[in-house]
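Look over this record as teaching material.
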Amino acid sequence: MPTTELNLKKALKKYFGFDNFIGLQEVVIESIMADNNTFVIMPTGGGKSLCYQLPALLKEGTAIVVSPLIALMKNQVDAIRGVSENRGIAHVLNSSLNKGQIREVMSDIESGVTKLLYVAPESLAKEDYSAFLRKQNISFVAVDEAHCISEWGHDFRPEYRNLRNIINDIDEVPIIALTATATEKVEEDILKTLRMVDANTFKDSFNRPNLFYDVRPKTKDVQKDIIRFVKKYPNKSGIIYCLSRKKVEEIAQVLQVNNIKAVPYHAGLDAKTRASHQDMFLMEDIDVVVATIAFGMGIDKPDVRFVIHHDIPKSLESYYQETGRAGRDGGEGYCLAYYSYDDIEKLEKFLAGKPVAEQDIGHALLQEVIGYAETSMSRRKFLLHYFGEEFDDVNGLGANMDDNMQNPKKKHESKGEVKLILQVVKDTNQQYKAKNVVNTIIGHANAMLKSHKTNLTEFFGNGKEKPSLYWMALIRQLIVAGYIRKEIEQYGVIKLTKRGAEFIENPISFMMTEDHEYHESDDGSIITNEGGSGGVADEALLKMLKDLQKTVAKRHKVPPYAVFQETSLEDMVLKYPITNEELSKVYGVGEGKAKKYGKDFVSLISRYVEENDITRPDDLIVKSTGINSSLKLSIIQNTDRKIPLEDIAKSKGLTFEELINEMQRIIYSGTKLKINYAIDELLDEDQQEEIFDYFLESESDKISVAYQEFDGDYEEEELRLMRIRFLSEVAN
């Protein structure tokens, strides 16, 4: 291992408690350490903040971090202070500080104590601040949430567009720009505005395999459905987004009267109430925040387990950013959106009265949202395609993690219809948007088609036997399949690709996935497939650790996760560390946190181990499993915790069949698996006894033989699960 790589990993372990970098973190950090301009596109939960935090801790001087929200700055400052004994290692400099606090910040910077200074663009532009910073040793400037720079971004901030001039006025230093959502257009806009076209650009995969995507029709019973869903996640954190303040208040009240700890959050509340509600969420005094999009970027909570969109968002960038708040710790994240065309019409009304160019951009973005909501193909593939990333919807990580893939719709051959669409695009000189292509095909003679005399052509109305929704669905699938593309500069005009032109000459099979039909059932019922979360093997200890986590957090005036993340607490329950050295080996802890927060935790665990006569599993883990695979170890732990098998499969990006295969490998290696709780959900006591006795007496454990023996009375997966239980109890 090269020396630089070794040193970076040692620093990573020392400050943050992680053994290895994830994704592109290491190469990004190397670029910053070499004083290069750097542009990073990394999905929410991919570890963007560490990309500039670690270099800032290692380099001489103070790094300036430009961030759009005061709340976001506060969260990150709390987190950085958690890895150091010196409180001055990180500061904010913004309008929330009084004169005494500002003097403290400046003093720490001058003395070289402060490694990270978080500022809003408006604060950086103030002459007294910039004059002070000109005299300091600045290591680099990080522009977080850089999509705010772009007018094509989902949260355009004009103040950001002057950042380069402000930075140059302070010092000629390297810039690192970071964003979680950037289409090619937004990416170009950011680089151009920051005048850093020479930047080393790093684009990580946008795929979040631990997130499950689900879109449901919005019926009159949507509130009941939300309550049912949230109650599947007792004591878990979640966010519900609504389009209007009125709806936020209404949903929050409905949750409260149904004994769900929820608060509203929107711009109509006074600043003190908003701050209080946000802190209640971060400190885990409440479970659910119901919010407008005013709530989001300021939240850096790693263990949000679900994000619900009561109303469909205005762009896929917004949707991706907001759903990205779920599962940032790598654990389960359920992303549920409710869709009705009424939502789209409301968003279109919001665009009315805005400049024409802005309206065109807004409408183009909305069309993508409609496509996502109505598609029957893999939602993950659709979403990643929007961000310019191809996805293998059969073998890719998280391939089965959406409603369309778990409940696949029918497919049918549509080679002829595909050729018709492509031919119409070609014969109309590639100058129409999707809507007008469809109007041509179905023979709808609107004004635009008449002005181009399209209604007089021989292909006009050739597809009138099918409705417009059918043709729009097929166009969306052809875009993702690469036969046509939308020209963004021309606000959605459809163009043929090379592949599409070749199809016209040599048509091949194209299996169209049939679209959802969005209508209410007669009884207004909704079929749900959400899953909940289970516990851990030692629930009693975990509860004690969580209580202690909150106590320590309040003592230090930081959120609980800034002390230790949930995944770290669960690892403690697994390993029972009783010394600071052992605690530093727990996932996500490290030397700094063990030293700062560890004393109370190891003391509690040591007492608990002694009082309950617990044999600590440091060695037992290896001996009992005999397996090196982290996946297999995770399955063993999760079944011990009685987590539903469907949830285990979802969280690991496996199909149910793949999970059963993994469990079989585990029991065949000689390790027990406790899955009685799962079988009890499928089979009654007599049925279990019948199958168990069969395997006890049978000369073969082949499922095909058992299936024939029972003449199809049991499903294959029921027999396979019973075989796992049988071998676990009898053979291991």
Notes: The two ends are 41 Å apart (CA to CA).
